[in-house]
Amino acid sequence: MNPLRILAKRATMGLVTSWAVLTTVFALFTLTEDWVLSGRIGAARFAGENDPEALAAIRAEYFAARGLDRPLTDAYVDWLGNMATLDWGSSLSTGEPVFPLVMNAAARTAAYVAPALVLAVVCGVSLGVFTALYPERRVGSGGVGAAYLLFAVPGFWLGGMILSLTLDGRLPRSPVVFDHLLPIGLTFSALLGGYVSYSRAHSREYAAAEFVSLVRAKGGSGYRVAAHVLRNAAIPFFSMLFTEALGLLVLATFVVEVLFGIDGFGLLLLRAVADRDLPVLLGGTVVVIGVGVIGNVVQDVAYGYLDPRVEMG
């Protein structure tokens, strides 16, 4: 299939997915109990305000400020149109324009996610292929054990222990370490185990194949043998690379940014949920869907280059 047709097909699927997800989020935040409004009503009553008209005025002001003082169908159509045109309005909690707010938060998250992802892929694939080709080497088995240990240790526990040591004064609090190196390290540890496991498992299928024996018989170096094995194992591994990483990255992002107070994408979405900040939440949802669509397009196109026998459609 032509890459342009793949792009058009994925874009269409992305639009349908975006509509379904945005509609679900809008319904969840407009048809369920509003805990922010309940908190304001409760605070007014605690202050001694029990007049029904005054409480009704608080409700009316709250809904008017959020554009929900009209039929939900009208509000839904307007919200959906704003999402499509990237006119995401202003945050209901801070008043800042939503589009630059979400983009800046996503860029801050990418600053530690991208290096961690590259390191995890390079180290995980290298270690997985090495242990598949040389299972008797202690270096490989030790590396696999260390990767699985890092994967098994909860990121929130490890990060919390480091923070506690810092608060006790046992470790110095360096901005470079806590704003960059530790977030990269925790995200890297969350991804590494999966990449090692998948690359090792798929490489084992080809480690004893005839073409590997032929390359070795011709005097091919270990690097050349590994390149042949990885090329054949690349398609199933590449399928995991994006789908597995996206789920793990979402979890790791929330943990890292809450622990270290990083004003990134995960912390922004958590605050939006707590404040019922619908514009920010819908804008963040569009970004997540966009990343998913782009990743699927890259994955489909890459299949054809990794193995020309694969029909990209």
From TrEMBL:
<feature type="transmembrane region" description="Helical">
    <location>
        <begin position="146"/>
        <end position="165"/>
    </location>
</feature>
<dbReference type="InterPro" id="IPR000515">
    <property type="entry name" value="MetI-like"/>
</dbReference>
<protein>
    <submittedName>
        <fullName>ABC transporter permease</fullName>
    </submittedName>
</protein>
<feature type="domain" description="ABC transmembrane type-1">
    <location>
        <begin position="124"/>
        <end position="311"/>
    </location>
</feature>
<feature type="transmembrane region" description="Helical">
    <location>
        <begin position="12"/>
        <end position="31"/>
    </location>
</feature>
<keyword id="KW-0813">Transport</keyword>
<feature type="transmembrane region" description="Helical">
    <location>
        <begin position="280"/>
        <end position="306"/>
    </location>
</feature>
<keyword id="KW-0812">Transmembrane</keyword>
<dbReference type="GO" id="GO:0005886">
    <property type="term" value="C:plasma membrane"/>
</dbReference>
<keyword id="KW-0472">Membrane</keyword>
<dbReference type="Pfam" id="PF00528">
    <property type="entry name" value="BPD_transp_1"/>
</dbReference>
<keyword id="KW-1133">Transmembrane helix</keyword>
<feature type="transmembrane region" description="Helical">
    <location>
        <begin position="237"/>
        <end position="260"/>
    </location>
</feature>
<feature type="transmembrane region" description="Helical">
    <location>
        <begin position="110"/>
        <end position="134"/>
    </location>
</feature>
<dbReference type="InterPro" id="IPR035906">
    <property type="entry name" value="MetI-like_sf"/>
</dbReference>
<keyword id="KW-1003">Cell membrane</keyword>
<feature type="transmembrane region" description="Helical">
    <location>
        <begin position="177"/>
        <end position="198"/>
    </location>
</feature>
